[in-house]
Design brief:
Layout: H1 4-23, E1 26-27, E2 36-38, E3 44-46, E4 53-54, E5 59-60, H2 73-76, E6 81-82
Antiparallel strand pairs: 1-4, 2-3, 5-6
GO molecular function: ATP binding; protein serine/threonine kinase activity
InterPro entries: CDK, Kinase-like_dom_sf, Prot_kinase_dom, Ser/Thr_kinase_AS
Keywords: ATP-binding, Kinase, Nucleotide-binding, Serine/threonine-protein kinase, Transferase
């Protein structure tokens, strides 16, 4: 089991990476554990931008993008509209064992 401080560090790094991508108008669209690289010092890098896309104005996206178990609830419920994530002011996250 991971120590709480390490979990906080990982969450902070992933949150910063997502924020950085969104500031650059990039949506990863397949963020999952197998796309996170961790080095021996505990530094996380986000990998595999194969499903990533740029966003500008609200538009429709395929609800089939990304790995199903990691999809946002609104995507699982069939939403195809998406607005700029930098305007949402929040990051929805689920911490799983």
């Amino acid at each position: 089991m991971l120590e709480p401080e390490l979990i906080k560090s990982y969450f902070y790094q992933i949150s910063n990476a997502v924020n950085y991508c969104h500031q650059k108008a990039i949506m990863h669209r397949d963020l999952k554990t197998s796309n996170l690289l961790v080095n021996l010092e505990g530094v996380i890098k986000v990998a595999d931008f194969g499903m990533a896309c740029l966003f500008a104005e609200p538009r429709r996206f395929s609800s089939t993008a990304g790995t199903r178990i990691y999809r946002a609830p609104e995507m699982l419920l069939g939403s195809q509209s998406f607005s700029n994530p930098s305007t949402s002011g929040r990051l929805d996250a689920f911490l799983r064992r």
